[in-house]
UniProtKB/TrEMBL annotation:
It comes from Ramlibacter cellulosilyticus. InterPro entries: DUF2917. It comes from the Bacteria. This is DUF2917 domain-containing protein.
Length: 112
């Protein structure tokens, strides 16, 4: 799976797992932790519209800037550091240098 496919999958699963999408279920679905490693170029930006406390970014190489809509804080991750979302507002990520990131979140187990 290439970077674009991986990021598209993450976005789709985060939208699917949004609390409003789960509101009408009788029983919670089983969940699994998913992790994706991606390389991003300096200056590359990504917005994750729907995140929750299970969403985390680990910077394995390089550095990234992270913020949420409406949050005055700026978070800079350097290699070896991790950020776990503490808000559900859209998360903005910007590569300050070429970076290798691990993106982690909880996802519902899907039945095929």
């Amino acid at each position: 799976m290439n970077k674009e496919d991986s990021l598209q999958f993450v976005h789709e699963r985060l939208r699917h797992n949004h609390p409003l999408a789960r509101e009408f279920r009788l029983r919670p679905a089983p969940r699994v932790t998913r992790r994706f490693a991606i390389e991003i170029e300096q200056g590359e930006a990504h917005v994750f519209e729907t995140v929750d406390a299970s969403f985390a970014v680990r910077c394995n190489q390089g550095s990234v800037w992270i913020t949420h809509d409406g949050d005055p804080r700026d978070v800079i991750l350097m290699a070896g550091e991790t950020y776990r979302a503490d808000r559900t507002d859209a998360l903005h990520l910007f590569a300050l240098a070429p970076s290798v990131l691990e993106i982690e979140f909880e996802d519902e187990v899907t039945q095929h």
